[in-house]
Write a structure and sequence with these properties.
The protein is of the alpha+beta class. About 50% of the residues lie in helices and about 10% in strands. Strands 11, 12, 13, 14, 15 and 16 form a six-stranded antiparallel sheet that branches. Helix 2 runs antiparallel to helix 3, helix 2 packs parallel to helix 4 and helix 13 runs parallel beside helix 15.
């Protein structure tokens, strides 16, 4: 009797919902059975092809196919699709089923649409009305089907037409919507918001979302938490706009921690762990100022409760190969508890000093236990979390006791664990313990594999410079690294040694500086003379040669001038052209200081190099000989000892720019997370900068292909007309201004080329960062000790969208932040939201700007930033330029060679043609990368490194009077020809508009060609 009652109830439910018995679709069951009975893949293929052909034939006569047959055939198509076969028909039939009155047919239609159609298919427009009707049908099951489809597909079509309708399910005060549908509505809105985030306003939504957190349905709370988290991660609005959610989220979290959770939402006795982690992540997005006294007290109590649970609950499971059911359950429970625990620690780190000190001490003890865990995942998370906790100086005393344990983790086989251990040691290093840590890292460096060596070298160099009691220790550390891992010591490292040894203004006393320079020269002489020439690494030769040439006069008196010259000359034959240039200039300096002793050795060398095949060496030798013959006074002026660097150079260590931004916060936007996923490790590659695109290495910074010696510290020695080091000082002055003259093209170097390691290596100052952003989609915009700016830009024809992320890397808050965008006639600019008014230590906030090109231009728009580092202090002004150069508004054009030549000839002659001839700045092999990725042009098939051609279109937002409804565009064409003799380039630019021609020619020349002496590009 009971069984009959159940069957009757099931039949009644089927009739109410329009569900037919599965026995009616015999054809589907037979098809599935036939597939399962196939013995080989070929048999399965034939059976599927036969069935698909039969269905295709049936669908050709749509009127003869009933709703039942459509449903059956669509299910067969879905089964074939799930087996991996392509299904390119039946889409219209699936759409028709979506509007059926029968639930079973509607189910098949919506499911087919969800699986077979992508979010950009135009056919989706046909089901918008069906979805709208079903959402408001009053039938919960039908509405759920429609919402499932929207959530699975998403897309711009649904976002434009359905966001408002689905929003009403949550916003309407009169709508009686069940929690079941509200859950699905939240999931749909999250999917649509990620596609189009202009449709949601905080003023309307925050009170409603806050109220939903108080709903008793845990599933709804989970969906709402996911929606809110998605809103915050998109970063469209600053978190303070959603501050009303903080008390509600905190109360919801407190209820869970106190055990107010239905049994069916507990995961291995952990109350709703997914909801707990989402709530903890939501709270991490908000600035500390948004936490009122009561809310902060509640959150501190929650964190203390989470961290003080019995440790036995968090013990990892058994490591035996065969685990019992109890072991599996214990492991699953441990995983859930660890997820909640680590998110709680992330929130605690976000709160910083406002977190309860007892909770911080408890966290330090727990993390120490995690670092000792047998589970490598727990060890990794423990080290990573401890490294962020160590950003707070007050925590060092609690973490110091784990120093030896952390050093042990540097021997782990997993490089990701070793990297986190290195990050933690770097954070914990102080002037009191630096020598122990650096000595241990040097020992590890000698036996480390190549995966971590370069990062080890970088951080050892930074720690030694920052913490050593005097710089002689720092010099010794660098020479030790050149012995242990010379291949991993990049140019930036030895450039910095040159800066430190040369000295900084307002730095150490003259006697101390001379002692340091003599010590460095002595170390260089010992390393270059005591080893066989074949055993000395190239980087050691560069550094040692430079130091001997610059400070050789400070070597002990028993070392003769000839011994100094022989010491560097013995490495000449095996050196690269760049190193030979440094040896040449060092020899010239030694000759100038001891002409009688070295004339017979150095002069023949210079005379031989006058006929060198290397243009760089030949030029340097000719210039030095000419100065020796014409004016000894002028030669003395050029070859005098390098002057000290500016104090700002000491404060802006270029090695620090190689390190990735270490933030204590884990509340990042999706853009930050996606960018972080593209890179690995704790530093940027040499020459790269923060937030670079995945292929940015293909398109190096301007000058990366310059002639050998382009980055040599000796370049400043051969600059006629100015004293040594003048280019370095000029570079620093340009950096401080951040802007150039009105007619400067993006790639022009204000220092006149790559000079000595002056203000910083190329690419560090605002000007150089701007130059790189002109050809890169994203990167560092400005950097200082109190404010960093990261910029990401996206362009669609004439419109560009820029996100400038303001970040405070310091230990003190900054305030009174203002941004001004002076109007310009050639570009329309609009701000979306205001920049942050204040930023606490480690905090970040975005500023969004939209630009639209109206007509051709060369001088970019200005972006003026002003902020204060202390209350009542003078404002710091940062004049910057937006990297929205004209080429950003180009779209590439695909064009074959005959078509290109036809149009190219039609644009010949002034003013539509401009030709520039100069020496090549970059290797011609890099031209395609600059043309396609940097200048947004399409490379013509058939181009080669010596003859590259590209075409593109400049888009503007100015209406075209001759074409109503369309905007004015300008076709642009570029041809680059290379002559190896003399390393010469001829760039021919032809466009339909004279102003575009002149601006594009300057931009191309500034990146690809060496500016003429005494002028810009």
């Amino acid at each position: 009797m009971a069984m009959r009652g159940i069957q009757a109830a099931a039949r009644g439910a089927q009739e109410a919902l329009g569900i037919e018995s599965q026995s009616h679709m015999k054809g589907l069951q037979i098809f599935i059975a036939d597939i399962r009975n196939c013995q080989t893949k070929d048999q399965e293929q034939k059976r599927v092809d036969k069935e698909l052909a039969k269905i295709r034939l049936k669908f050709t006569n749509a009127k003869a196919v009933s709703g039942y047959d459509k449903k059956k055939y669509v299910w067969k198509l879905l089964y074939a699709y799930m087996l991996g076969y392509e299904v390119d028909f039946g889409h219209f039939q699936a759409v028709e089923l979506c509007s059926s009155s029968k639930f079973s047919e509607k189910t098949a239609g919506y499911l087919a649409v969800s699986l077979l159609l992508s979010d950009n298919t135009e056919i989706l427009r046909l089901i918008v009305n069906s979805i709208k009707h079903d959402i408001g049908s009053g039938n919960e099951h039908v509405a759920a089907l429609a919402l499932n489809t929207v959530a699975n597909i998403g897309g711009a079509e649904f976002a434009d037409n359905l966001f408002v309708d689905i929003s009403k399910m949550l916003l309407s005060p009169t709508a009686s919507i069940s929690p079941y549908l509200k859950r699905k509505a939240c999931i749909c809105l999250l999917r649509l918001y990620r596609k189009d985030n202009d449709t949601l306003q905080p003023d309307i939504w925050r009170s409603k979302l806050a109220a939903l957190f108080h709903d008793r349905d845990i599933g709804l709370q989970t969906s709402v938490s996911g929606f809110v988290l998605g809103i915050l991660e998109m970063g469209k609005f600053p978190p303070v706009e959603w501050a009303e959610l903080v008390p509600s989220a905190g109360q919801c979290l407190q209820n869970l921690v106190q055990g107010e959770c239905p049994d069916h939402y507990e995961y291995y006795h952990v109350p709703a762990p997914w909801l707990q982690t989402k709530l903890l992540r939501i709270l991490q997005f908000f600035p500390i100022a948004t936490f009122t006294g009561d809310t902060l007290q509640r959150i501190n109590a929650i964190l203390n409760s989470v961290l003080t649970k019995p440790v036995a609950q968090r013990a990892p499971g058994s490591g035996s190969k065969k685990r019992s059911k109890a072991d599996v359950e214990r492991q699953n429970r441990s995983n859930a508890e660890h997820a909640v625990l680590f998110e709680a620690m992330n929130l605690m780190i976000e709160l910083g000093e406002r977190c309860d000190p007892n909770t911080l001490r408890t966290a330090a003890g727990l993390l120490g236990a995690f670092v000792s865990s047998t589970d490598p995942n727990i060890r990794y998370l423990g080290l990573e979390t401890m490294a962020r906790l160590a950003i707070m100086p007050s925590m060092h005393e609690h973490l110091e006791r784990y120093k030896n344990l952390i050093i042990e983790k540097m021997q782990e086989p997993d490089v990701s664990i070793r990297r986190q251990a290195l990050n933690l040691l770097y954070a914990l290093c102080t002037p009191q313990n630096w020598q122990h840590i650096v000595d241990e890292l040097l020992e590890i460096l000698a036996h480390s594999d190549g995966l971590l060596q370069e990062e080890l070298v970088l951080k050892i160099a930074i720690l030694a410079e920052r913490n050593a009691p005097n710089f002689t220790w720092y010099v010794d550390v660098v020479f030790k690294m050149l012995e242990s891992a010379p291949d991993s010591v990049s140019d930036e490292v030895w450039f910095r040694v040159v800066q430190v040894v040369t000295g900084f203004e307002d730095g150490m006393a003259e006697s101390e500086r001379s002692k340091l320079q003599g010590h460095a020269a002595t170390k260089a002489f010992q390393n270059l003379s005591n080893q066989r020439a074949s055993m000395v690494h190239e980087t050691l030769v560069k550094l040692g040669t430079y130091l001997i040439g610059e400070f050789g006069h400070l070597l002990p008196q028993n070392i003769t001038p000839k011994a100094k010259f022989d010491c560097i000359q013995r490495h000449y034959s095996r050196a690269s052209p760049q190193t030979k240039a440094i040896i040449l200039l060092a020899s010239a300096k030694l000759l100038n200081s001891s002409p009688d002793a070295l004339k017979q050795g150095v002069l023949p060398m210079l005379e031989d190099l006058q006929e060198s095949h290397d243009a760089e060496l030949q030029q340097r030798a000719c210039e030095i000989l000419q100065m020796m013959r014409s004016s000894e006074e002028f030669l003395d002026h050029v070859l005098v000892t390098m002057p000290m660097y500016a104090e700002s150079v000491q404060q802006n260590n270029p090695l620090m720019q190689r390190l990735k931004f270490q933030s204590k916060s884990r509340a990042h936007t999706r853009a930050h997370l996606e960018e972080a996923a593209k890179s690995e490790g704790g530093m940027f590659k040499s020459g790269a900068r923060s937030a670079r695109s995945p292929r940015s290495g293909d398109l190096g910074p301007p000058g990366s292909g310059a002639s050998p010696g382009g980055l040599s510290p000796g370049d400043g020695l051969g600059a006629p007309g100015g004293g040594p080091g003048q280019s370095a000082q000029k570079y620093e002055e340009s950096d401080s201004s951040g802007s150039g003259s009105d007619d400067e093209a993006p790639g022009n170097d204000p220092s006149g080329g790559a000079g000595p390691p002056g203000g910083s290596p190329p690419g560090q100052g605002p000007r150089d960062l701007w130059q790189q952003l002109c050809i890169m989609p994203q990167g560092r915009f400005f950097t200082s000790g109190s404010l960093n700016l990261e910029l990401k830009q996206e362009y669609d024809a004439a419109v560009g969208r820029l996100t400038i992320m303001f970040m405070n890397p310091g230990q003190s808050p900054i305030g009174n932040i203002r941004v001004m965008l002076p109007e310009v006639p050639y570009m329309r600019m609009q701000q979306f939201g205001e920049p942050p008014q204040t930023l606490g230590p480690g905090q970040s906030a975005p500023h969004r700007v939209q630009v639209q090109c109206l007509r051709p231009f060369l001088q970019p728009a200005k972006y003026l930033v002003e902020y204060c580092t202390r209350p009542g202090g003078p404002p710091i002004q940062v004049p910057l330029m937006l990297p929205c150069v004209m080429t950003k508004f180009f779209t590439p054009v695909e064009m074959q060679m005959p078509q290109f030549r036809q149009y190219f000839e039609s644009f010949a002659g002034p003013p539509r043609e401009s030709m520039v001839v100069a020496q090549a700045k970059v290797n011609p092999a890099q031209w395609p990368n600059y043309l396609t990725q940097g200048f947004q042009m399409g490379l013509v098939p058939g181009s080669d490194p010596s003859n590259a051609m590209a075409a593109g279109t400049l888009n503007t937002g100015t209406p075209d009077p001759s074409k109503p409804g369309q905007m004015m565009t300008v076709p642009c064409m570029v041809r680059l020809e290379y002559n190896p003799q003399g390393n010469m380039v001829r760039a021919t630019v032809r466009t339909q508009h004279g102003e575009v021609t002149q601006a594009l020619a300057q931009i191309v020349a500034s990146y690809l060609m060496v500016p003429p002496q005494g002028g810009g590009a």
